[in-house]
Design brief:
The complex is a heterodimer.
Chain A (H helix, E strand, L loop, with lengths): L4 E3 L2 E4 L5 E6 L6 E7 L5 E8 L2 E5 L7 E4 L6 E5 L8 E8 L2 H4 L4 E2 L3 E5 L1
Parallel strand pairs in A: 2-11
Antiparallel strand pairs in A: 1-3, 3-8, 4-5, 4-9, 5-6, 7-8, 9-10, 9-11
Chain B lengths: L3 E2 L4 E5 L4 E7 L6 E7 L6 E7 L4 E4 L2 E6 L4 E6 L8 E8 L11 E2 L3 E6 L1
Parallel strand pairs in B: 2-11
Antiparallel strand pairs in B: 1-3, 3-8, 4-5, 4-9, 6-7, 7-8, 9-10, 9-11
The chains are: A mainly beta, B mainly beta.
Chain lengths: ~120, ~120
Amino acid sequence: EPEVTQTPSHQVTQMGQEVILRCVPISNHLYFYWYRQILGQKVEFLVSFYNNEISEKSEIFDDQFSVERPDGSNFTLKIRSTKLEDSAMYFCASSEVLRTSGGTQYFGPGTRLLVL
Amino acid sequence: DQQVKQNSPSLSVQEGRISILNCDYTNSMFDYFLWYKKYPAEGPTFLISISSIKDKNEDGRFTVFLNKSAKHLSLHIVPSQPGDSAVYFCAAMIGYSGAGSYQLTFGKGTKLSVIP
């Protein structure tokens, strides 16, 4: 069964450093998303991406964040200068064309980011 | 602003009995609802969904009921099995109709424990 994959599974970084989280969405999906879950809190939407551009972003997704689909298969989330409060589990998700499936999003296993 | 609420943080059920997980929402624009199951250190796994044009959707042991007038949905698991023990998230989106946001808004989750 096709699945969303994410690398790395864990990332430890120093405050102020740049990190890139990688995702390979399900191959025939066209919509891509990043979510995060801070320990003990809700899963929160960060950004959605379609047709090589951001469709929507939340207020969490500030100028320190960026997304890219560099090669037609990977979908990346970059945090330019990490802060302590960026420590969280980051989930990538993908979905098919929305009208045909309602937009069911399938999630990857997540990357646990720890900023020290 | 809790647009999606799961008021029961935990639920314990005997194996073989029915598990009922509840979810309330406040945003009347939501038109597509999903239930996800999550094990520790894994990503949310899609279980079942329902659009706002329906009031019930069934898939095997899982049934989701939607009461639009009450802004309430529930997930029924019958019969419950020990492997169902996980955190269950309710999520909602505006977008099934083709317009609006595709981001998922999650509840805080309910931890289900199925006792053998």
